[in-house]
Specification:
Blueprint (H helix, E strand, L loop, with lengths): L1 H32 L14 H12 L11 H16 L6 H13 L7 E2 L3 H4 L6 E6 L2 E7 L10 E5 L2 E2 H8 L7 H12 L2 H6 L8 E7 L5 E7 L31 E2 L20 E4 L3 E5 L11 H9 L7 E7 L12 H6 L4 E11 L6 H13 L3 E5 L7 E4 L14 E2 L3 E4 L12 H6 L10 E2 L4 H5 L4 H9 L1
Parallel strand pairs: 10-11, 11-12, 12-13, 13-17
Antiparallel strand pairs: 1-15, 2-3, 3-4, 3-8, 4-5, 4-6, 6-7, 9-10, 14-16
Helix pairs in contact: 2-3, 3-4
Amino acid sequence: MWKILKFGLFGWLVLSVLTLPLYWPFIRMFWVFLPMIEAPDYEPPTSVVEARMQDVDYLGKLTQYDRSFTFGEAVTFAAKLDAANERASSLTDAEFYLALAEAVAVADNGHTNLSYRPQYTEFSTIGARLYEFSDGTYILRAAADKAATLGHRVVEVEGVPVEELRPSLYKYKGGNETWRKLYSTLLIESPDLLSAAGHAASSEAIELTLEAPDGTIETVSFDALPPDETVKQPWRAAWYTINPDTQNPIYEGWSHVLDDGGVALPAYLTKIGATLSYVMEGNGLYIRALPGFSAGEQSIPAAYKEMLTEHEDGSLDYLVLDFRLHDGGDYTKSMKFAKTAPNKVKEDGHIYIITGPNTFSAGIVTVAMLKYYAGDRGMIIGEQMGDREKFWAERGGDFRLPNSAYYVNYATGYHDWEKGCKGEPYCYTMNEMYEVPAGSLSPTVPLPLDFESYRRGEDVVMDWIAARH
């Protein structure tokens, strides 16, 4: 019996040594890129000030996990936390939130940020939802008492031209200018936060100077409304505003700019959350990319396979892959699709990859892979994506402040989808295995979305493609 155990143990050790190289990358991935976060260890605070000081102290541990900070940025981060700590007794809740957001955003990385969710679940908002188009900022959704402002362009916020105000709000969000601009709108919609940032005279209301479609200019006061109910709206991506979904209970009694015009929505804004593909004139196929981690009851790989299954390799004249609503997920679920989808197109065919400001994270990675495997047939069109070709992402356990419960997104793994990061100290494990040097991911053909096209239900990108086929 003892001999059997010895031989069994010896065999297990030999097998472990032989298979270690096979499993080592995954062992390293969990060890290096998916850390367990040290839990807060503080006595229950006896005051608001003490609670804030504990939050600041715990947030100071962020640079132990997040690798996107340069040395200089880490020094600046620490200095901003010290300043927040010194002012802990005098800051309003909104000022404290912004102070922490500004400190984290120093990393200048799209994945490294204080959660923006409290901006609408803990602080006041106004009875309007705004969106930035290529020709300005417009009101797309409004409460009943402000329905007359729908479709109006925001000229000034509290007397300051909106194009001058936005850059002053970028410091609260890390990432490229596209990403910062996209989410600065949430701050403009919050009297609490805009006042705390020093850009509104009061937290009770915001004055917006608006231009009506007929050119009339009027200044309208928007009163502060209570924060959105978390249970009704647990998450709010920026692109939700351009989708006139009437099912969200948060907007009961509100109107959307597309509600009463009899306008047919562009296809990419329909059937949100469902798979969407259709055959196009001129022997083309349209597919809307799948964000997240599943496609309803299907897995993402299975959904993509189903959308391609009726088309033989080399059978299509062109393929349209729409990533305008793909703001992240698990890129490994889309890798096979990125490799095989271009095979469906003829050698002299075209592969159009549509991107926009909301294209982010795993969406960017899949775009890079598709561009690479499409070769000369591939073309990125549309608008600039929400991050650079080089960025930091990936995370392990949750990093949440002990008292405010603000969630902090951090990043541990390096990505370079322009040239590749293999060989870099913290190149993410999956990237080392599957990355491709895709080159620039900026649109070859910029096709910005303007408000009037949107209001008419036109899709400027798809119209451009249709004109070619």
